[in-house]
């Protein structure tokens, strides 16, 4: 790593690229169904006899122009219709792990949306078995540890969420936590207070999407009604200074996804993204890819895009990587080990 000036200044882009790729880090906000690249979608569509609405991968990518979250979700749910068998979920997860391994990830926390598969007649067991087997194989082959987080669809009924929680109880060894995703506006976190209480009672960790398109008040509500330990996105928290102070004081991790926010119009440009302001305010911000096959970039692409737009320093990048480990569901001893690895990496890069 070449020598640089004071670390308070934005660094040379090539050096940032090397530094970002190499630093040990975790991805904490990743929907496995959102890693379905058009090539795999077409191959699985052909294999499973499911019609894909695109002639080829270029046509799919050209269609990925979104005006908001809903316009994305429409294509996302349509695309995942090709996922029918355990093997499909295995291959999907395996592909993702290879990509994120190249991005220097040491640990990943993966969301899945079982309700969107159950409604198509795909058994819960096929979904969990396929993803989990690939995660276990990824740990053996690539050294990437993982946790699986089951999301409830907030634009479906709370009763539906309770039904899927009931299925998950039989997989307590494979599913570490529950989350809340899908269309946010008009679906406040408090609607799901009962199912989150039951999930926490059963020993699941709790996280929730909030403040992506919805207001800062939804972030507060997710903390108070769902007792989540992390907020997924939390972009709109910046609108409420008292909330920012609370997130800082309570060490609530925000799993932010810059390229997703750009592509869904949550921010007008990356230069306007609140990530750096929140980081400077002492909030435990992390960088993640959300649905990388749809938003044009995996983990490192997100770090690099936001670094370039906001002039992040190596100190900022190291803080983001540390936050990703500290905010993970890993046991304290493993977190400490990975944080020490980051310290060693940063020291070596500065030498
Ligand atoms: N499901 C997949 N990606 C999502 C996002 N960015 N927001 C809400 N739900 C999602
Ligand atoms: Zn998400």
Topology (SSEs and partners):
Layout: H1 13-22, E1 25-31, H2 38-48, H3 57-63, H4 69-79, H5 86-102, E2 105-112, H6 114-118, H7 124-142, E3 145-153, H8 158-168, E4 177-181, H9 193-201, E5 205-210, H10 216-226, E6 230-233, H11 241-249, E7 253-256, H12 258-263, H13 275-280, E8 284-287, H14 292-295, H15 299-310, H16 314-326, H17 332-350
Parallel strand pairs: 1-2, 2-3, 3-4, 4-5, 5-6, 6-7, 7-8
Helix pairs in contact: 1-15, 5-7, 8-9, 16-17
The structure holds adenine and zinc ion.
Q: Please, what is the CATH homologous superfamily?
A: Metal-dependent hydrolases
Structural class call reads alpha/beta
The largest β sheet comes out as: 8 strands, parallel
CATH top level assignment = Alpha Beta
Molecular shape: globular
Which molecules are bound in this entry? Answer: adenine, zinc ion
Note the run of SSEs as H and E: HEHHHHEHHEHEHEHEHEHHEHHHH
Total number of strands: 8
Low-confidence stretches: 1-10
Query: CATH topology, anyone?
Result: TIM Barrel
User: What's the CATH architecture?
Assistant: Alpha-Beta Barrel
Structural domain count:
1
Kindly state the mean pLDDT as a whole number? 96
**Continuous helix count:** 17
Distance between the termini: 8 Å
> In which range does the helix fraction lie?
40-55%
Give the spatial strand order of the biggest sheet. 1-2-3-4-5-6-7-8
- Percent range for β-strand residues: 5-15%
